[in-house]
């Protein structure tokens, strides 16, 4: 295992030992490629509310929250209690329908404006695969449009152009040709995809003009949360709604991050645009593994009549549904209170990060909405942008080196956010006023420390953003 160049060997001494032990039997020491890319030697001990502890005894205010599911923080008591009670009542799995199906279905369709009928799945990856298959079946067309820099899970059908290394000369000019995100993905899956630029109407208009009869759907994160956090420009989601409709294609919102987070009804409630199909995971289970996809009654009829196949031994298991019932009940009954915390503290931290960086003379862009945001630090030669509108701009603007330095300076002050420079920050309903104050105090100190370190050693960014081991 490599030594962290900014923290040194001793900081995670226990973690390093445990990680080495894990790596002897678990390939790479982590069971997700996304976790491996964090490059940080930290093993988890326990979490409580907005905080967690590593096995070296460090305590952190958590702004990563298990990649987002922990919308109520670590160990949410009501959800855990509800799951225990449900297991005691039902066991864990039956594969027969039961009351929980009805209860979660009713809560879900009440909260989410565009979902008349839904199906449960086990992960966001599965839900998105199911949504794309449904769109292809409904339209009878083969191709799905995705945005460069988006992430829709790790399936062969979608892990394309997620974080392509556009610094490489042959990938630099924008092209609708998808780039595989892993070795081992058959090229043939790429033939069923086209790549557009988020927030760039022209890139999509061109695709529809050339391939209009072949496009089944535009699959989009309504707020693109996998290249930092990128907000839709005013009118952009409405444009997506109109252009898909006018070409007879479907609009799929991947709400795996935004669902039950931007509002109880997700991005479609908060931003006011209703897709034909939407996918959910993360916040829906508050840490328990559950996902879903759903949409208009007309489109979902193909699932209802079993003309489109979707399944899974573990779909709609007791644990998942009991968790979702508790989560949705909480969101329905305490909506105002919960979103006052998520929106209010979210905005305070964003504002505080901006101020801290400005006071230290660090150029950055902090952007986000409600409980999710990102901070992009400017490279010395970064273009003069006031906001990031797509993956390419994120690339052109961001200094990975400065992000790393700020990340480790915050970590040493007890604030954890994901160390990967394009992975967003989340806040939970468990975060408190004192967490916010401690975070902003840490941010002021960390920004000054980073500014000082840059005077001593200017930013040196790597020449490539490719993830280790991923050939493109
Ligand atoms: C927008 C989006 N879609 C899909 C997925 C895949 O979800 P899962 O990791 O549950 O398979 C993710 C995961 O981070 C995501 O952010």
From TrEMBL:
Entries under CDD domains matching the protein: OAT_like
EC number: 5.4.3.8
Listed InterPro entries: Aminotrans_3 (IPR005814), Aminotrans_3_PPA_site (IPR049704), PyrdxlP-dep_Trfase (IPR015424), PyrdxlP-dep_Trfase_major (IPR015421), PyrdxlP-dep_Trfase_small (IPR015422)
UniProt keywords, alphabetically: Isomerase, Porphyrin biosynthesis, Pyridoxal phosphate
Enzyme class, first EC level, given as a word: isomerase
Alphabetized GO MF terms: glutamate-1-semialdehyde 2,1-aminomutase activity; pyridoxal phosphate binding; transaminase activity
Pathway(s) of this molecule: Porphyrin-containing compound metabolism; protoporphyrin-IX biosynthesis; 5-aminolevulinate from L-glutamyl-tRNA(Glu): step 2/2
Cofactor(s) required for function per UniProt: pyridoxal 5'-phosphate
Keyword Isomerase in annotation: yes
Any matching Pfam family: Aminotran_3
Gene Ontology BP terms: porphyrin-containing compound biosynthetic process
Family classification: Belongs to the class-III pyridoxal-phosphate-dependent aminotransferase family. HemL subfamily.
Annotated protein name in UniProt: Glutamate-1-semialdehyde 2,1-aminomutase
Lineage: Bacteria, Pseudomonadati, Thermomicrobiota, Thermomicrobia, Thermomicrobiales
